[in-house]
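User: Could you write out the 3D structure of this protein bound to adenosine monophosphate? I've included everything you need below.
Assistant: Certainly. Input first, then the structure.
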Amino acid sequence: MNHSKDMKLVRSVAEMQQLAQQWKKAGETVALVPTMGFLHEGHLALVDLAHSHADRVVASIYVNPTQFGANEDLDAYPRDEQGDLEKLASRGVDATFLPSSDEMYPNGAQTFVELKHLPHHLCGLSRPSHFRGVATVCTKLFHAVRADIAVFGEKDYQQLLVIRKMSEDLLLPIQIIGAPIVREEDGLARSSRNIYLTPSERGQALALHRALQHAQARYQQSSTTIAEIESEVTDIILESGGEIDYVAIVDDQNLTRLQSKNPSARALVAARYGKARLIDNMALTANP
Ligand code: AMP
């Protein structure tokens, strides 16, 4: 089915809120899928999941400056508005919200959302203001879209926890749904940033998934320790030529490093291959 004629393009917050209000008056629920565009199957799987939870689905495309550090890839971040709109229309999205920074941060905005503990692990250590930007923009997007539900990928696992906790803390009337990681056939997690990889770097980057699978297999062996598994994962990534940001096996709720095996373990990795900083993660189960 071609849905493209039905999809609305909305660039202002006021228009977005009005549209959502109309839907709500008709008794319909609204799900939001926030993205930074340059869409791939990982994003579109979130759209499919959103459809199964709400009457109306809104995707947002906004490359949020406040979540990029000074030396990060804000200006280089890949964009393809036309291609994105075609993909979203073909997946039956009701509206795509494409705000400008003037809409999202009006009149020199002064208010930011900051969490106390969750950002001080993993990605937050090398990207100190990242989650402040993410939490702030998501709060704004939730209000702009009047979303009842928002869908986030487990690919950005720390982000998913940050958004869940922020929504709980701020009493936001929204349900946060997590979606599994979508991978290429060879295991590489789909990411807009994969475009930065040269063909040989792309081959090297397969080590991230391979290392996580190794972690999962070793986690199931009763004799292994967390420290041993972390060290083996580190070696696999280093041998592939990756420059490691972190390798960590953590409690999957509070992100603190595990000392010993427990049922809520997750392995998370971040490494740089050439210009691309890639992240990936996997739940570790003792008895799959
Ligand atoms: P981004 O455009 O990178 O900000 O991502 C927007 C949303 O898509 C976030 O909730 C991501 O976690 C999710 N996402 C990105 N890549 C994947 C993937 N490979 N599988 C599942 N979700 C993803």
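DSSP finds ten helices and nine strands in the chain.
User: Perfect, thank you.
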